[in-house]
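The material for today's practical consists of a large collection of protein records. Read left to right, the backbone structure tokens trace the chain's path through space. An example says more than a description, so a record of this kind follows:
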Amino acid sequence: MVSVETDEKLKTIFLVEDNKADIRLIQEALKNSSVPHQVMIVRDGMDAMAYLRQEGEYADAPRPDLILLDLNLPKKDGREVLAEIKADPNLKRIPVVVLTTSKNEDDISQSYELHVNCYITKSRNLSQLFKIVKGIEEFWLETVTLPSE
């Protein structure tokens, strides 16, 4: 999905999510964004790291401005992906928002121990999920000053 209406730099949102319904809902929530953006999607942790390291089919992948990361992923779990991102000097400055259904205190604590930028529990209520995604977009893509590569 690409929305470009101004001369602003196109923002890349990297969505790491295995649930097709959640992917569609998040894309829909971002559809009317005022920020020119593209959403790049992978559905497992192995592909997430290949994308971020620009390996194989992802050799020309754009560097994300923001990563939305689910914790419960196939092949490589989101906790492992987060640990690898934050341990990699080339990736650690990319903001990571954990967006997951887990309310488990251990998941929350572990994510912050691994230096997640914020942890948000997904709502199963559609209007609440849209509100959450809009808030993420407004804060991380409009309000915050992000580092350049």
User: Anything to note?
Assistant: Residues 126-143 form the longest helix (18 residues). Residues 39 and 140 are 14 Å apart (CA to CA). The radius of gyration is 14 Å.
